[in-house]
Fold this protein.
Amino acid sequence: MALKKYKPVTAGTRWRIGNAFAEVTTNVPEKSLLEPAKKTGGRNAQGRRSMRYIGGGHKKMYRQIDFKRNKKNIEATVNSVEYDPNRTSFIALLHYADGEKRYIIAPQGIQVGMKVQAGDTIAPELGNTLPLKNMPLGTIVHNIELQPGQGGVIARSAGASAQLNAKEEKYAVLKMPSGELRKVLINCCATVGSVSNSDHALESMGKAGRNRWKGIKPRNRGVAMNPVDHPMGGGEGRSSGGHPRSRTGKYAKGEKTRKKKGSDKLIIVRSNGKKLKTN
């Protein structure tokens, strides 16, 4: 992808680094695959605010994405690559041979006119979806399932990918985007390639108003509050605020927050490089 650096015509464009959208081929979405996206404003089902700093933003429609890729052994042609306001990656519109249309997460390097397919015995080529057991070692994949038939849940954001490192009986060993080594059932499916829009992290908003368009309100720092409002508030002048912690007093740095999960036994090496003890 390509980035676009703006001339400092205004204060908002002085520091702005935007997306040139070089891969995007159309700005008109497929109407049959749209559905309303309702805003919550940070409120839960009882109407009470459960998440702060959420509200407003531009109206948008949700694009129905095919994470399962369960239309097997039917060839599809990439009709367009589009921007999706609901995610950081681009999406691709597929036209299947039987006339059906579906959106998928666009892999890096996909182009209009390319043929993609899903199935158990197809070639591990860019954009194709197949089980991990049928992929060669070293394959770069995204949109990875954790349970067969569940649909992809891992490596779906811009530039994300995992690498197939090994195969052990009923498990495949993947190197995750975080650096973690993890076992995944070998019958789970994944899509070949890395996710598009890899330079998304290098973009710069340029002004606070662009975040308001995304529905993100200004965030107030804890050290700027009063003691009654935050554990880090108060003090004479500009004080450090003490140990970084959340509004409820939970330490923000160093304290382990992950609860024990049943899938912990499938983690071989954590993202910090520590090997897990195997009982």
